[in-house]
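Narrative of activities, Objective 1.

The group set out to show that a structural description can be obtained from nothing but a protein's sequence at a throughput compatible with the screening campaign. Below is one input-output pair from the validation batch, recorded exactly as produced.
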Amino acid sequence: MRPCTGGCTISALNAAALGLPKLPELSSEDLKSVRSFLPGKLLGRTAAILSLAVLVLVFAGAADRALKFLGADLTPLPWAAHYGLLIGLPVLAVAAQLAMEWRSSRVRRQLQALAVRVDAVPSGYFRIGPYLNTEEDRAKFTRADLAHEKVLTWLERSVSTPLYLTGDSGSGKSSLLSASVLPALRNRGWTVVEARAWQDPVQALRDALTALAGSRRSAQDANRNLRQLINSAARRAAGGLVLVLDQFEEFLILGESERRQAFAALVANLASPATADLRLLLVLRSDYQPLLEDCGLPPLRHGENFFQVARFTLPVADEFMTKSGLGLETEARRRLLDSAAELDETPGLVRPIILNVVGHVLASGQSTAPSLDAGLLVRRYIEQTIDQPALRDTAPQVLEKLVTDQATKRPRTEKEIASETGLRLGEVRGVLIGLGNAALARPLDAAQGFWELSHDFIARAVARYLGRQRRALWRRATAYAAPALFAAAVVAVGGVIGWDHLSPLAAKSELEELGITLTTRGNAIAAEKNSSFDPARLPEIGRFLTWFRPQSLDLSFTHVADLEPLKGLTALQSLNLAATEVVDLEPLKGLTKLQTLDLSGDAGVSDLEPLKGLTALQSLNLTLTQVADLEPLKGLTKLQSLDLAGTSVANLEPLKGLTELRDLTLPNGHQLVAPFDPKAFAKPSTR
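Output recorded for this entry:
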């Protein structure tokens, strides 16, 4: 059995428009991957494998580096944090990919448990659009709840005027009439006149009755009023006359006051007295029933002038799904129908349209159901429709204007939508026709371009779709988790390697190998040569020392000759160059913070001119140098200790202004302690 679908016919469109548009042949997940440029599994797995390779390389060098750095006293980056970057990010990349793989595997297992037999579903079993009055549709149509037979009996027996056939959106009223009830009445001799009320049902009936009369009577009938046309048609009818106004809610919504009054007067005229061979059937959605009395029409009377096409009960819905050929297991069908009832917000009852949408998605999908949640399947159908190339760029903007903030339908005109979205009128109309083809929207007034979504549950599903679209960026970003984490790991590894080579910790290790040992003395850094020191590498040593900015440096008893690499050590306060091969002191003239300088044993030193600007100097050892002229020292007013033993100094006059000088060793080795004898500065002591 196949249930009919809702009253969402689109008579203003051509026959092709009544069928469903061809949906994409690729699965929706494939389409999302292609259109969103998602990396898929290949890139994620590659990132995970490369991350493992990074881990192997990191662990291979970790032990050696740890032994070298763990006990270091100058590391600004804790060892745990240092290796946490190298190890943590690759681990996270692998974990992220494993999590995605696990989730994918879990979903795959779940879907495999939801196997469906797509090839076993008869063509056209699940109908999104309404059944029509065609030979093929009449042969296929039936309802599991036999509502079509009940409506036929009710129409034949009831003599009230008018008769109201109502039902929820998607309950199948239009299909029931077009493919079963009205053809059956015609077969039994009734004359059936169908019209759509739009905004003027009186004129719609007049046009339909005039067309029924045929060309030879049309001129005569054109001069008659509507009641005369109805009487004439009833007399010509062998078994009786049935006037059908489908989707009557359009008139209740859009009809003007004068036309409402005119139609109410017609109904009253036909009802007094009622005739056994005339039926006026008004077909409308049940949510618009309260508007009937506003139009002056007779109230609903159950069992007399009113028949409501009900939703399917769960047993009836289960029978329909069982006979579809999908092959769902009993538990799977139960879960599907329970979720469909939940979507309808009517426990135990399901609209046929939902079953058809759900079945259509299942039958047009893969060999496994994407879900057993009806809401998800309905959204999947909406997504498949909207994701078509002709709709996907503009449909979301149009749909936003057809849904209220409360996720209910909002009728709008094409011009209003175009004005509010900035789209061209043709683009808006194209989207609406595409949505209409898929039975997601319907025109309330084709002439005025007035549209609304076809069902309330479609409005809710569209609202969820639009809400998820706004969160799509985050969902897409999760697919990049493993590659992004791998990229971060690569950057971190590069950063850590660079840090290892450029950080003070690495520099200290390099200096150790170059022959300079760094130690801490209080809050200061001290540097001194070790057994590996090579004067030829002093330029390289100087570059590292510039980073550390040590306050003391001991290069005594080495073969250092060129001090140029030291001129950048402006933080130096103490420099020991005793017993070196230094000759030129020019590179030292910028070391203005220098307080202690030991040049003892440097036989090549003779010119003290570069020291004249070192005004912070407090201690100077010139023992066994070739210094003879102390004139450059006369401005070093902070000098407290000066050793001239073994020098050629003959004139101490330049020292007369050094009032801070407390300890002076004369060239002959005699040591003077302040206060000095003034004669000591006249000439060097010979004792």
